[in-house]
Amino acid sequence: MTLEDKDMELLQLKKFCHAARCGSFSETARAFGVPPSDISQTVRRLERELGTELFDRRANAVALNERGAAFAEAARQALTLLDSAAAAAADRVDAGQVHICVNANRRIVMDTVETFRRLYPDVTVRTEFFADPTAKEFHLIVSAEDARLREWHKEPLLSEQLAVAAGRETPWAALLGEGLAALSGAPFITVGEGSSLFALTQQLCREAGFDPRIAVQSDDPYYVRRCVALGLGAAVVPLTSWQGQFPPEVALQPLPYRRETYLYTAPERYLPLCARAFAELLRSACAQTL
């Protein structure tokens, strides 16, 4: 079947794809600000043009049938391609917006933001920390391995050794060389629950035979380091990206573990020139830390 003589419109396909994704004509109607009957008529018109039904209709819901699922996937890809083409036609490296999800290596990313803003002052940089990477259409995601991003393009960004840190005057400092298991009674300082470092702290402590007792948790790595320096607890920390960030009164003991950080980009979505420029600066910043 070809579409040469069909009268399909972009808005028609967008409404169909939304209904296919959410399984509700009413929800799609609310999203587009039209009556539910408009969506029903749009889908019926599309089905007539294709010569086949796309949905199985029930009393309070609709569900794609086999032909509808195949068409929805093809339509989604076509709309993504058209959106990318439109974005590419109007794109400039020195304008626009970069939207970044930062779930690892916050300091390096923010240092890169500072450098980027000096080079491209008219570009808006939006950063969200420890967020669900699938909740919004991020241009770039900086994260550890994440099963939710299996379909995304992934490139290694930084590999760094981990260490355990504690104030030198605390009772836990003398135990650092004995491994994590020796710190089972110590309070721990961690970053936010959405971060890769929080997950690694939980994982490594459990592998050592205990659940860490979290005394202080902060979304800002600066305050994590500050709390360690004040003697409030121990912390699992990255040696490379936090290099030089601890005062002399903090003892560091390397661990036989590493943290891997990746840069994720959506494979089917156009990546703006400004986002590409930011990614290149970030790669360079990470390479310089090694």
Write the layout of secondary structure elements.
Elements: H1 10-22, H2 25-32, H3 36-50, E1 55-57, E2 62-64, H4 66-89, E3 97-102, H5 106-119, E4 124-129, E5 140-143, E6 153-167, E7 187-190, H6 196-207, E8 213-217, H7 221-229, E9 235-238, E10 250-265, H8 273-289
Parallel strand pairs: 3-4, 3-5, 7-8
Antiparallel strand pairs: 1-2, 5-10, 6-9, 6-10
Helix pairs in contact: 1-2, 1-3, 1-4, 2-3, 5-8
> Low-confidence parts, pLDDT < 50 over ≥5 residues?
1-5
Residues in β-strands, percent = 15-25%
Order of helices and strands: HHHEEHEHEEEEHEHEEH
Mean pLDDT: 89
Features:
290 residues; alpha/beta; Arc Repressor Mutant, subunit A; D-Maltodextrin-Binding Protein, domain 2; 3 domains; 6-stranded mixed beta sheet; two-stranded antiparallel ribbon; 8 helices; 23% strand; elongated; disordered N terminus
How does this structure look, described?
- By secondary structure, the chain is an alpha/beta fold.
- The chain folds into 3 domains: 10-89, Winged helix-like DNA-binding domain superfamily/Winged helix DNA-binding domain (Arc Repressor Mutant, subunit A, Orthogonal Bundle), CATH 1.10.10; 97-156 and 262-289, Periplasmic binding protein-like II (D-Maltodextrin-Binding Protein, domain 2); 158-257, Periplasmic binding protein-like II (D-Maltodextrin-Binding Protein, domain 2, 3-Layer(aba) Sandwich).
- It is 39% helix and 23% strand.
- The protein is built from 8 helices and 10 strands.
- It has helices at 10-22, 25-32, 36-50, 66-89, 106-119, 196-207, 221-229, 273-289; strands at 55-57, 62-64, 97-102, 124-129, 140-143, 153-167, 187-190, 213-217, 235-238, 250-265.
- The strands form 3 sheets. It has a 6-stranded mixed β-sheet with strand order 4-3-5-10-6-9. A two-stranded antiparallel ribbon has the order 1-2. A two-stranded parallel ribbon has the order 7-8.
- Helix 2 packs across helix 3 (36-50).
- The longest helix has 24 residues, at 66-89.
- The protein is elongated, with a radius of gyration of 25 Å.
- The N and C termini lie far apart (55 Å).
- Residues 1-5 have low confidence and may be disordered.
